[in-house]
Write a structure and sequence with these properties.
Keywords: DNA damage, DNA repair, Metal-binding, Nucleus, Transcription, Transcription regulation, Zinc, Zinc-finger. One of its GO terms (cellular component) is transcription factor TFIIH core complex. It comes from Rhizophagus irregularis (strain DAOM 181602 / DAOM 197198 / MUCL 43194) (Arbuscular mycorrhizal fungus). By secondary structure, the protein is α/β, with parallel strands linked by helices. The chain has two domains: 3-239, von Willebrand factor, type A domain (Rossmann fold, 3-Layer(aba) Sandwich), CATH 3.40.50; 247-276, no CATH class. Helices cover 42% and strands 17% of the residues. It is built from eleven helices and ten strands. It has helices at 3-9, 26-31, 38-55, 80-84, 97-115, 118-122, 131-148, 171-184, 199-208, 221-229, 233-236; strands at 15-23, 60-67, 70-75, 154-162, 188-192, 212-214, 251-252, 259-260, 264-265, 271-272. A six-stranded mixed beta sheet has the order 3-2-1-4-5-6, with helices on both faces. It has a two-stranded antiparallel sheet with strand order 7-8. The protein has a two-stranded antiparallel ribbon with strand order 9-10. α3 (38-55) packs parallel to α10. Mean pLDDT is 83; it is low at 1-5.
Length: 276
């Protein structure tokens, strides 16, 4: 999806649905705590979400946590009445009520997620999070919203805050999500906060017409969010950002789950690193 195509499909008056996926891998966030802790990052992300909602009254947002062994909606949640029992319901005249509802739900559900350690003990690959599962949830939610919007007024996009390294075991699932997003015309933006570059998500941003940013200055996290990822799809057609770096199109082999540049393709389009 290029800029010319997007100009024909988006309008200045369109509402914007932002689906934010936060990589909440506690092991990797602990390593990066000196430069940017999860608590600080969440505070910046809540300001970013509020700014998105403030841009237009009919803008919508959804927040999904990509954790170790599980993906979970932080906002909206199926049963908000359960949350209301555990949060302060006092009305603050200095705070827009919609901001308070989103902030309270995200913070409360994030706490619940970290208090539940069952997935940490049962999931073998603790170096990565369930980014494929979170992407699937984001696409399903977005597709449901788009189907309910008969006039095509809502224009969705996905933003992934990534901190974990690539997991070759999730390669096929991630690629399926990329192709689904491409077919639906949903851009996938990626902000890589820590660790080395993520090959799979860089491919996702490139193939769906999204933006990829490797955060070089963690202290400027909020500023980079506002400048690079806050503009909607219509505004992006008039922005001039630095050119995209070279994209690595390496794949993960089906047999050994290793990253390879050259492999063997079977009749069912499965990649192997050895001839069979």
């Amino acid at each position: 999806m290029n800029a010319l195509k997007d100009t024909a499909t988006v309008n200045e008056d369109d509402a914007n649905l932002l689906v934010l996926i936060i990589d909440t891998n506690p092991l990797i966030w602990t390593k990066s705590a000196k430069s940017l802790s999860l608590k600080e990052a969440l505070r910046h992300l809540l300001v970013f979400i509020n700014a998105h909602l403030a841009l237009k009254h009919d803008n919508e947002v959804a927040v999904i946590a990509s954790h170790i062994g599980v993906s979970k909606f932080l906002y909206p949640i199926p049963n908000p009445s359960r949350l209301s029992e555990n949060t302060d319901q006092a009305v603050d005249s200095n705070l827009y009520q919609r901001f308070k509802v989103v902030n309270d739900q995200v913070i409360s559900n994030m706490k619940d997620l970290f208090e539940d350690v069952s997935t940490l003990n049962s999931y073998p690959d603790k170096a990565s999070s369930m980014i494929a599962g979170a992407l699937s949830m984001a696409l399903c939610y977005t597709n449901r919203i788009m189907r309910a919007d008969e006039i095509g007024h809502i224009k969705p996009r996905i933003l992934i805050i990534s901190i974990s390294p690539d997991s070759p075991y999730q390669y096929i699932s991630i690629m399926n999500c990329i192709f689904s997003a491409q077919k639906l015309g949903i851009p996938i933006d990626v902000c890589k906060v820590h660790s080395e570059e993520t090959v799979f998500l860089k491919q996702a941003a490139h193939l769906t017409g999204g933006r990829y940013l490797k955060l070089q200055i963690p202290q400027g996290f909020l500023q980079f969010l506002m400048i690079t990822f806050l503009p909607d799809r219509f505004t992006r057609n008039y922005q001039c950002l630095p050119g995209e770096e070279k994209v690595d199109f390496s794949a993960s082999c089906f047999c050994h789950k290793k990253m390879i540049d050259i492999g063997f393709l079977s009749s069912i389009r499965t990649v192997f690193n050895l001839q069979i």
